[in-house]
Amino acid sequence: MFDTAGPRARRWIRVLTVLSVLVLVGLFALAYYRFYASGALAPSKWLTFTRPATIGYLGTALKNTMIAAGVSGAIALPLGLVMALGRLAKFPPLRWLCTLYIELFRAVPALLVIYVFMFALPAYGLEVSTFWKLVLPITLCAAATLAEVFRAGILALPRGQTEAGLSVGLTDGQTFRSIVFPQALRIVVPSLVAQATIVVKDTAFGYVVSYAELLQSGKVLIANTGDLVQTYLVVTVLYILVSLLISAGARGLDRRAGRTGARGLSLGMRRGAGGIA
User: Cα torsion at 174, 177, 182, 183 (round to 10°)?
Assistant: First the structure.
């Protein structure tokens, strides 16, 4: 997208990078000093988090967060792929319907959809549990975004990839499964990681429906102990650990998709060549 940076541009990039790092270090140092001066980092303030009851409470909250995020992602991922294929379909009514869904739920905030499930649907006799009041809105919004991610990955591949599969006798479905989708998946893995992280963070809307996820449980813990800074720091660390696990899983998926794609492409080509022979 951009030309290679020249010597002058590289110098400016290095200078701005150093300045940015210094500013961030300074902000962290200032925050640490203020916390230390106020006694918020005193060892006695962290005793709460060494108690088995507190550890178990936060562990349950983390489990609830992962369950909500996992169920949302497990539904949104295939739904997003179906919506992407529907938007690329040659049948106009299907394409229009999928486009309407994608554009609607990409534009509407997840919190607004949660309010619909909390107040609007029950007024018409449609009531779901607290868990699904959180999971379904997150799923609907995430699937719309994932649909565009998948569509962008598919369209990013050169048309010659599809034509090569068709030329050796593969059907449209075989070409997509063996050639197009594995390569598109590798392209969109970074976006999938970002969306998975967003889904985890969206579970923080659990406070709206009183679902005992990580942030909601942290608020309850603060109300009982008064350790605001310590609790939010612990919750932040837990969210960071979850994000790191997602990134590690994505790297494994990327490697596996590369191996599977290469095997699928080779097998598809052999089958096609055998059919022609």
Answer: 50
